[in-house]
């Protein structure tokens, strides 16, 4: 097992070294031990919750009620502040059990190994542990999309959306209600489906979630605002999320940066969009977390072609392979449920060109952005028009994700 010093942990968590040492003395950091007078801490350890949350008179009642041990099995990698390049070590360092199993399923999914992610997560679909079950629903739903197992994906989605309003009526603990709302919103936002209906008794999940999941909930909100065409607001949510983060939570950060790219490209602020996609890649690349880029390709307005492909052609090819697998399954769920006609027969390059053309980019602007000739832009548009059975750019919008 790899270790870090108390000083390094303090730097990563944004707290003082003295506080980290106090956590160690109190036994609140699993696996920490003292060697030659200095504390060493297992690499990838998550910052303990602040014990003061149990008694602050000014803090919301929902937060005072939350037990320190809650949410341990709900998407643990997503919820963890680890240093880029150490995610595999962190997942391997977890004690054998449910949390470690869910973390391994997450790791496989974000690495682009949908089959392993599904295989590891599936046994938890019927778990008595609500955190594990909901995590498995989300992982299996999206893994099965990439595997073309649409009925299995729908079954898992039903689990993610499956808390009926009656279950909120004073029976479901607020933490479980928050988890269910979080997972349902995540699944529906990524599929561009309406948010699940919740009872008036359902709590706002945001204050109840731990910091990492709170950040991912901000990504979900930003994604929703993008779909509504509120691009400035969407980008504002991203910036606000980064401002409130107390540490780097890599997986939510990757998704937040990609949400920023989506809105900035819609606003034609390409230089800023490039900075965000490269920031996301800087976080993801040390661990090979390539799945989010493949998931978002169609929404990024050719930015992967412009910013990633020239310097990392092999990684770009992996992203595109993921895009084809994921988007094929995505459309088989999205299109029937929404009656949309999101294009399913374009190449990824044709789709990116059409996304920009649908936003009134000229052929010259598209060519300069994507790094190829105007003639190739014309060829892409001509092929797309033929495949879609349309005659002009004004007909593109209903087939795009714009």
Automatic annotation (TrEMBL):
Residues 40-61 are annotated as: Disordered. The keyword Transcription regulation applies. SUPFAM superfamilies: C-terminal effector domain of the bipartite response regulators. GO terms for molecular function: DNA binding. Residues 343-400 form the HTH luxR-type domain. GO terms for biological process: regulation of DNA-templated transcription. It comes from the Bacteria. Keywords: DNA-binding, Transcription, Transcription regulation. Pfam families: GerE. Gene3D superfamilies: Winged helix-like DNA-binding domain superfamily/Winged helix DNA-binding domain. InterPro entries: Sig_transdc_resp-reg_C-effctor, Tscrpt_reg_LuxR_C, WH-like_DNA-bd_sf. This is HTH luxR-type domain-containing protein.
